[in-house]
Automatic annotation (TrEMBL):
This is Olfactory receptor. GO terms for molecular function: G protein-coupled receptor activity; olfactory receptor activity. Possible taste receptor. It comes from Myodes glareolus. The chain crosses the membrane at residues 23-45, 57-76, 96-118, 138-156, 202-224, 236-258, 270-290. GO terms for cellular component: plasma membrane. Belongs to the G-protein coupled receptor 1 family. Its main location: membrane.
Length: 307
């Protein structure tokens, strides 16, 4: 790789340039990381060890928990390393590796949310055909497609970074290596990279968002046709948590990958990136478990000492 670049390593700007706040940020991010990993691990184990939760909805929720663990583990350990005084440098190969994995996991998470919306659409709009349309082979195929397509997309966009030429400027204005931030540094043309990034954004972001919204438009129309107020409440309760997560992720990720890559937008981007790499993985277990009696019962069975 050194044949393609004069830069052997990059310097991450970090979350804050104030040395006095390093200890506070270290404490906060350590707590955040622990909460994200612990919460999602509990959800994954509860679903895996409880046969009553071996249904399509919880199968996708277990995949979401895995993606949340992987996403936050790709970003926060390196950030914590810089906060404890071990330096904010990252090697060229390490930076590309981080970009590959964060792009993979974020893309898979967005597509998985679309698959979860489709699952809710079938459950509410076609309940009589649910077992056939959402059989185990279908669910495995959907999940495998989500992981595979996102991995291919991430491989293409990361591979296109390798030929770029960096002319010595190696400070990344972010607390981790992310594609929009890194594309501000090359002195060689990045036209192809920008085109492929936009194409990926349109497919993974916009198209999946539209599919999700179409699914929910049918879901809402179907719920409104339910005559009993209790039936409407139950139907909405099965979708409200997922709709909250969808809104949160799409709004933050679209902002990051569509915003201009310079000026104060990069500073704002740090906060927004923190939301979907750290805050989201913390909130997901709370959103799905606190509003779901089945998950709470499963947690009490598997972990009676903490529930």
């Amino acid at each position: 790789m050194n044949n393609y670049t004069d830069v052997a390593e990059f310097v991450l700007q970090g979350f804050s340039g104030d040395p006095g706040s390093q200890a506070a940020f270290l404490a906060f991010f350590s707590i955040f990381y622990t909460m994200a990993v612990t919460g999602n691990t509990l959800i994954f184990m509860a679903i895996s060890l409880n046969p009553s939760l071996h249904t399509p909805m919880y199968f996708f929720l277990a995949n979401l928990a895995l993606l949340d663990i992987a996403c936050t583990s790709t970003v926060l350990p390196k950030l914590l390393e810089g906060l404890v005084g071990k330096g904010s440098h990252i090697s060229y190969k390490g930076c590309l590796t981080q970009i590959f994995f964060i792009s993979w996991f974020l893309g898979a998470e967005l597509m998985l949310l679309t698959a979860m919306a489709y699952d809710r659409y079938v459950a509410i709009c076609h309940p009589l055909h649910y077992s056939m349309l959402m059989s185990r082979p279908v669910c495995v195929l959907l999940a495998g497609t989500v992981w595979s397509i996102s991995a291919i997309n991430s491989s293409v966009n990361t591979g296109l970074l390798v030929p770029l030429h960096f002319c010595g400027h190696n400070q990344i204005r972010h607390f981790f290596c992310e594609l929009p931030a890194l594309l501000q540094l090359p002195c060689s043309p990045t036209t192809l990279n920008n085109i492929m990034t936009v194409m990926a954004d349109v497919f993974i972001g916009v198209v999946n968002f539209l599919f999700t919204m179409v699914s929910y438009s049918f879901i809402i129309a179907s719920i409104l046709r339910i005559r009993s107020a209790e039936g409407k409440r139950r139907a909405f309760s099965t979708c409200s948590a997922h709709l909250v997560v969808v809104t949160f992720y799409y709004s933050t990720i679209i902002y990051t990958y569509v915003q201009p890559g310079s000026g104060s937008s990069m500073e704002n981007g740090k906060v927004v990136s923190l939301l979907y790499t750290t805050v989201g993985p913390i909130l997901n277990p709370l959103i799905y478990s606190l509003r779901n009696k089945d998950v709470k019962v499963a947690l009490r069975k598997v972990f009676p000492c903490i529930c």
